Amino acid sequence: MRSEGDALKFNSGELPIAADGRPSLALSASKVLLPAKAITQKLFDTLEQQGINYCHWKSNIRLEKTLAGSEDIDILVDRRDAGRLDAVLLAGGFKLAQSRSGVSHPGVFHAIGLDDVTAELVDVHAYFQVVSGDSLVKNYCFPIEDALLDRARYLNGVRVPAPEAELVVFALRIALKHISPVEILKANRRYWKISQEMAWLRNAANGEATEMLCAKWFPSIDTALFRQLLNAIEDDRAVLRRVFLGLRVARRLRNLRRLSVFSAMTSRYWRLLSFLVGRFRRRRDLALQTGGMIVALVGPKGTGKSTLGHELAARLSKHLDVTRIHAGKPPTTMLSILPRQFIPIARSLLPNERLAEYEKPERRSGRRYSLLHVVRMTLVAFDRHKLLRRAHRAAAAGTIVISDRYPSETVGASDSSCFDDIAVENCGSRLKRWLMTKERAFYRALPRPHLVLRLVAPVDTAVQRDALRSKMGGPNAEAVRRRWERESHGEFPGTRVIEIDTSLSLDDTLRNVVRTVWGAL
């Protein structure tokens, strides 16, 4: 270990890997610093300006990545500064978030912010108390908040604990990750990160001061046990030894548990189930406290709805619960699954019944609809109704729903009701008239989106983009031009509609889209 006087000279960041695969302290001087994101730099600057007592309390080996936005921001804050912290976060554009499944930890909350330059999200974990243990339960509450804050130093312009303090907490955290089978597997999956951080901390900390600090904070952890623990953590292969020592540490710290053994076990398996369900659904557990919303991307073919929907979901789902739907092509329901099987046959046998035929102006103006077409449109309306009602429930529960296309209230517009008053009145068939009425009722009952992004681009640009798409039947410039009018003028009364120019580059357009959606959330 290094001497106390040299400890503050050590820079943060992961250590370069030497030829033997181990972290190399000698190579660290040549490492290139990562640029900090504007939002993270502003956050730490504001915390300093406001005199808020804080420190970035763990994983400071990756502090540069934290400042660059690729790692979560874990700050411990004096609980007496809680109100001022909230004000700083909200003034900085952060939004408070919470667990949808109720698996959050006491004294900890999340705030998500958008970096205006890159249009990427960053996640702040704000702690008012040091809760630790396995990642699922965090069953131990260490009463050392004031001590960590009092020993703060500066690293890359950010307050962090003294290396001795961080080493004590790190060693106990890793020990407590080896007391359950699930955590043992998780902790040792990429163990090189842990051993690398241990080497980094031991090099920065004064050994004697670290042992004295551990004895002062945790009298039940004797020096011999602590030394064995440090050595076992630094040795990648000492899994069994870490398990044995972890159980000993857990027993010595049992007075710091916040849950009984039974409650901890119940909580662990509930959290594990929630985690597995989220992984299976590819969904995050966090939702904004302001709630979810349905964001609809509408516009003519070739304006980038699918591409932007995919990229928007990728940005937001890094931290938040997001799901995508395609309201233009709703999934089948029990009512429509059988009839849809015959659509390919009908296209071949009845070419005049194709949707493209009904999109022609002369056919639309004549309002002549076959029973087959009316049935098909009614089933599509039913499927959309089911899909969008589910989307509404998800948004009400906190999910951000991103919809590719969305029905408007303009009869005859793309993805909207096909039959106006005149068509219903002039229809001589009772059955067709009843089906038309049902179709209109389904659309009238649809939930409104919370935000509509109307994507616009010159028609020639859309034709060029359509020509580059790989799809069945190849590009169809005539279809793009024919549908341009119908797909451009759907009305959404009572809903905020914002036009997005997609003739710009994808990066510029995506930044505009992300900023617009984030401002509405």
Write structural notes for this entry:
The chain has 521 residues and is of the alpha/beta class. The chain has two domains: 26-279, no CATH class; 291-520, Rossmann fold (3-Layer(aba) Sandwich). 47% of the residues lie in helices and 14% in strands. It contains 22 helices and 15 strands. The chain has helices at residues 38-49, 63-67, 82-91, 145-150, 163-176, 181-189, 191-204, 207-217, 223-234, 239-252, 261-281, 305-316, 337-340, 343-349, 355-358, 361-366, 371-396, 421-426, 430-444, 459-468, 477-488, 506-520; strands spanning 54-56, 73-77, 95-99, 108-115, 120-127, 130-132, 140-142, 153-155, 158-160, 286-288, 293-298, 322-326, 400-404, 451-456, 496-501. It has a six-stranded mixed sheet. Strands 12-13-11-14-15 form a five-stranded parallel sheet, sandwiched between helices. Helix 5 (163-176) crosses helix 8, helix 12 (305-316) packs across helix 22 and helix 20 crosses helix 21 (477-488). The longest helix has 26 residues, at 371-396. The two termini are 49 Å apart.
Through-space gap between termini: 49 Å
Please tell me the total number of domains: 2
- Structural classification: alpha/beta
Number of strands: 15
Q: Going across the major beta sheet, what is the strand order? A: 1-2-5-4-3-10
Percentage of residues in DSSP E strands: 5-15%
The biggest sheet amounts to: 6 strands, mixed
Q: What proportion of the residues is helical, as a percent range?
A: 40-55%
What is the overall silhouette? elongated
Residue stretches low in confidence (pLDDT < 50, at least 5 long) are 1-32
Average pLDDT figure: 85
Number of helices: 22
Compute the CA-based radius of gyration.
29 Å
